[in-house]
Design goal:
The radius of gyration is 28 Å and the shape is globular. β9, α10 and β10 form a beta-alpha-beta unit. It contains 15 helices and 15 strands. It has an eight-stranded mixed sheet with strand order 4-11-10-9-8-5-6-7, sandwiched between helices. A three-stranded antiparallel sheet has the order 12-13-15, covered by helices on one side. By secondary structure, the protein is an alpha/beta fold.
């Protein structure tokens, strides 16, 4: 790779080189410690004499911008005073739009100190220690071999056919979803699936209904598309269908494991929701983010499998079963928007990374995903049972767990007034990470409580960590 320097004409060649290299160093385009090309090589690249380049290097060394190391070369010196960035002009035509995006909330990004305590109850984080490194490494190796035999062209926007086949079979097996590979669009996580549906249905001023409380990134995504986002309350059976306003175009729900409270949507409520969507001509997004982990009771049908009118878009993710770092999800699109979603996917990022798709297809096909889910299920079930026992005993005076039969988080609602801000601060001082429910409410007074994620904490750590929480609560009392 050549160093970017532009030499004009034939005058003051050394001065031109000194000015350009000096500007690049002061602006930070050449970082501290960056090695510059040898004088002979740079002279050949620029069509200059080696003497000209050597003189420029010498002057920059005299100015303490470069430093020479015998036997190693010439490097950008330490301690260079960097030039201040030029502020953006106030006359930017799109300043209002940029400001709206800049000020858009970005919840659940897990910023520090989130996730940094010794005992972590952060939600949405699977156990990294359970990740199937050996099996995944083998599948990645096979994917690279497969890629070496390919033509090196762009892939299908909808995703690799082999992965779409594997996803269709997995969704049918695990959730009873009715689909074929032609219905599947591979996405960069569930969030892109939500974005694609919003892109093809939402326009400024239209109404989108979301659960209240609910998943903040979905709410803010729809708002960013210009929608009027209406929070619809949930009760013990799920979203209150009668409160979905007329004119709603898109309805976002988490029926298998309501986020963040955890209860499943009842069958009667599911039927009512599907009937309401049909009457409105609305699409329902069914976000099925972690229902693979079920601990008790009979499995319930997915909304998509109950749908007889093509109103449900089913969204799944591998962030909870495998790892958020993979950024792999999928959308089983409603028939009415299938082609539009494929076009939107093509125009936004063309397609998801093909090597990762090959690896995941192989991993699912060989049974690695089901084996991994079974392994995680056993560990999460143990942690869930321990949490339920503690909250039913010594923590019962302060909190009540909302019944949840799936996933790897539960909501703990306050039985009595507790200053949760103080509790969270004091708990972090004793190395316990706790997180409140307030941020999941947008349009109604929040229920006081905690989101207790148990994917990132070992079963052996639950008792000592909750002992510390109990002691803090006693001190606060």
């Amino acid at each position: 790779m050549e160093l970017h320097v532009v030499i004009e004409g034939g005058k003051d060649l050394t001065g031109q080189l000194v000015r350009q290299l000096g500007d690049a160093i002061r602006a930070g385009r050449l970082a501290t410690g960056e090695k510059l090309p040898p004088s002979r090589l740079l002279a050949e690249q620029l069509g200059l004499s080696r003497k000209t380049v050597s003189e420029a290097y010498a002057r920059l060394t005299w100015d303490k911008l470069l430093t020479g190391k015998v036997g190693s070369g010439t490097f950008v010196a330490d301690g260079v005073q960097r030039a201040q960035a030029v502020p953006a002009g106030r006359a930017l035509a799109g300043a209002a739009v940029a400001a709206r995006w800049r000020d858009m909330p970005t919840p659940l990004r897990h910023p520090a100190p989130a996730g940094s305590a010794r005992y972590e109850y952060i939600g949405g984080a699977p156990d990294r220690q359970l990740y199937p490194h050996a099996d995944w490494r083998r599948c990645v190796t096979q994917a690279l071999r497969q890629g070496a035999r390919s033509r090196g062209l762009y892939g299908d926007a909808e995703g690799l056919r082999e992965l779409r086949d594997a996803i269709a079979r997995h969704a049918a097996f695990a959730r009873g979803v009715r689909c074929s590979a032609l219905d599947v669009v591979v996405t960069n996580g569930a969030q892109q699936a939500l974005d694609l549906v919003a892109r093809v249905l939402v326009e400024p001023g239209c109404t989108v209904a979301v659960e209240e409380p609910g998943y903040p990134p979905a709410r803010h995504l729809f708002s960013a598309q210009g929608a009027r986002v209406v929070g619809v309350p949930v009760d013990s059976e799920g979203i209150v269908v009668d409160d979905i306003p007329d004119g709603t175009r898109l309805i976002y729900v988490t029926p298998a494991h309501q986020f963040p409270l955890g209860m499943p949507m009842s069958v009667a409520r599911r039927e009512a929701l599907l009937a309401r969507a049909q009457a409105l001509g609305a699409i329902v997004i069914e976000d099925d983010y972690d229902s693979e982990f079920r601990y008790e009771g009979r499995p319930t049908d997915s909304l998509q499998s109950m749908d007889r009118h093509g109103n449900v878009a089913f969204v799944g993710t591998f962030s909870k079963t495998l790892s958020p770092e993979l950024r792999m999800g999928y959308l089983i699109a409603a028939p009415a928007v299938r082609e539009a979603v494929a076009t939107a996917k093509h125009l936004t990022d063309w397609h998801s990374p093909v090597p990762a798709q090959w690896a995941l297809a192989k991993f699912i096909e060989e049974g690695g995903l089901q084996k991994h889910i079974r392994r995680c299920h056993a560990r999460y079930a143990e942690r869930r049972a321990r949490l339920m026992q503690r909250f039913a005993n010594d923590l019962a005076p302060w909190f009540e767990l909302v019944p949840a039969a799936a996933g790897f988080h539960m909501a703990a609602l306050c039985r009595r007034p507790i200053d949760l801000g103080v509790l969270i601060t004091l708990a972090r001082r004793v190395d316990v990470g706790l997180y409140r429910l307030d941020g999941f409410y947008a349009s109604s007074p929040p229920q006081a409580g905690l989101l207790m994620g148990y994917g990132a904490i070992d079963a052996a750590d639950i008792d000592p960590s909750l002992d510390r929480v109990r002691d803090v609560l006693i001190q606060m009392r």
